[in-house]
Task: structure prediction
Amino acid sequence: MQIEMSQPILAHNDRQATANRERLAAHHVYLLDLMASPGAGKTSTILATIERLAKRFNVAVIEGDIASDVDAQKVKAAGVPAVQINTGGACHLESAMIARALDALDLQALDLIIVENVGNLVCPTEFDLGENAKVMILSVPEGDDKALKYPAIFEISRAVVLNKVDTMPVFNFDEQAFLSSVAALNPQAPVFALSATSGQGVDAWCEWLAKQMQSVVG
Amino acid sequence: MQIEMSQPILAHNDRQATANRERLAAHHVYLLDLMASPGAGKTSTILATIERLAKRFNVAVIEGDIASDVDAQKVKAAGVPAVQINTGGACHLESAMIARALDALDLQALDLIIVENVGNLVCPTEFDLGENAKVMILSVPEGDDKALKYPAIFEISRAVVLNKVDTMPVFNFDEQAFLSSVAALNPQAPVFALSATSGQGVDAWCEWLAKQMQSVVG
Result:
């Protein structure tokens, strides 16, 4: 069952996304749309990424939340510009929200903007923000069957981060089953197993991201 | 930002929800709408609840998923009737989907139907299914700040289950901060800290649910 208004809404969103994309390209800024369930570790992955990439690139973060600014505060404490978007109930970010957030950032001074989307494995998949890539995080405690149950987000992600791998012994997570189900949906997407809090595996993810950025940032 | 069509869609949903509620009341069936993030442990909580309550009540389950029937298979393996709804992309269940699922169940023979909503802390909050109560599960790995970030679901829940409490030492979860933030939004809601897989705390949750059912089932 789909909400009937979705086609006009999506067409409007796509037009603004295209405008965002052209604006960012003109400034040589790479936009990453990071999606995940609530509590999968989006903010901690962003903080771990900033820690490694801020020496090489100028980074900013756009934080999307239904309510609160706790994540933006954490990012600002890491010394990086952060813009908080409160969706006021909406389950995803839209390109018009990103356009307003870009107005608040100095694009000329930036190389990379990481968007932390609203915690949700469903709604963000349908909305183009003007990003260069969508990437999703799944965390080990969520279980190894999530690609079967939420296929769309795995299909549209350029890469998949598997976070909290240090807790694999605690949970009954079948990594091989997970990797097979991801590969069946999206054979091109690399899967980066890491722990954002311990740092394990974060370097490989950051190297991949830096390589993706090359054609945009130069 | 809200989708403009939401008011007519919600009004239509509410009419069908009222019809569901009357139909269930006529058959003395209690309907529980169980909501949570992906991987918070909805299915394992349902299985632990069935294990304890199936001796006293006739239970069935309605499984809501974007895709797949892995959860319905698990419930059927526990010897309980299960109806799978695949929403085909929609991020929540609606009352019309529940109406069709009720057609597939023998209401005369049932006391309790547990609806496992789509894994999502946002969208299911807006849709009345005709339930007697909405209850949410938060799992410890998701973090202690979720009531600040997803307030609506905490506000509308009759009770809150805090699952995977056995993993609290692994994660940096501040239980007191979590309980305070829930109490600020919803002072009436009891919070049941439990582990659906180890069984710790499940009895208290089941006793509460059985008590809620009394006025309906008799």
